[in-house]
Amino acid sequence: MRGALRKGLLLQRLFVRSGPPGARGKEGVPFMLTDWELIEAAREARKNAYCPYSGFAVGAALLARSGRVYRGANCENVSFGGTICAERAALAAALTAGERRFLTLAVAAGDAPVAPCGLCRQMLAEFGELRILRAAAQGDEYRETTLSTLLPEAFTAYRPDEREPADKEKGGRGPYEQAR
Ligand SMILES: [Zn+2]
Q: Considering 37, 40, 44, 87, which one is annotated as catalytic?
């Protein structure tokens, strides 16, 4: 019985969708993963940030279309240029797991809602449109935006006229054209 319950919970987690607390999806089914849960995942990841140089800990949680959540924290280095942001750390973890399509990214850091840096925006744009939840390290306010708002007219293809999919094999449609 306990095993069945655990399996049921696991299946629930595989089909989560992010949305505002209490909101319902297209079919009237309540979202099983709220925006707040994704933000909490980012805040949890933030606790593992390695940031001895800046002291600015950042956490990110990336929700893939599969329903899985991938976490990242900023990883600094004495050679500053080698530093990896939390958002890209989360993206790398997701890509390594085979994910190519994403729904929502939550970022948490600082005293006020932060936004992904330019480099992270560019890396994320490779995989299409994305909801972005910006939160501070604590508190109960967050801002919602989209990647195309943060990075309009992005450089998205080596041959822009041909609009090559980011990953044909995985069904990618190219930046900002991804079906939601
Ligand atoms: Zn960044």
A: 87
